[in-house]
Amino acid sequence: xxxxxxxxxxxxxxxxxxxxxxxxxxxxxxxxxxxxxxxxxxxxxxxxxxxxxxxxxxxxxxxxxxxxxxxxxxxxxxxxxxxxxxxxxxxxxxxxxxxxxxxxxxxxxxxxxxxxxxxxxxxxxxxxxxxxxxxxxxxxxxxxxxxxxxxxxxxxxxxxxxxxxxxxxxxxxxxxxxxxxxxxxxxxxxxxxxxxxxxxxxxxxxxxxxxxxxxxxxxxxxxxxxxxxxxxxxxxxxxxxxxxxxxxxxxxxxxxxx
Length: 258
Known about the structure:
mainly alpha
């Protein structure tokens, strides 16, 4: 392989890669759709010209047919009037008109066929344009979706989930340690000597209040006086033996029941 051939190949590969990298499929497809639509008016003009030629030939054929009929009538009239010279002249015109009519008829057949083919070609082009447009729109949507997926992939690549996961784990451990330390302090505080002393003081206060209540009941005659002469004693529970050795029950009105 020659050096010049290798240089040309390298240059083509270089510029081809640059052009390919700068091509936007969406813009190219949209421009292609516009180009196809712009050709429709030109195609309609061409079809209109072919159809106009057909119509002109049709009118020319009608005019020649009328001329042939008219010349035939004139020839007959000339022959009837014994004007052979005039009949001969009309016969010459009739022959020329008949040749023109034949040629025009052939041209009209070709023009009619051309008009049908032009209309068919125009319809096929419009149908193909619609199909290509729909296909191009699908490709454009696929291109947009692919671009969005590429952006999402780039975003996911830049998002390091491992670092965030380790951060969450670290913060969770710190919170767990703080919660455990607070719970341990709370348990130690509830089991301290001060709390136990407070419990004893509350129990002593409760006992004093109960003693006061019994004293009020004895003073009001609701309970028997204490034989000890000192601190009033609590009543025996139901079914227990009293100080005199008898089983007694205290009714609701304060009287004893043996």
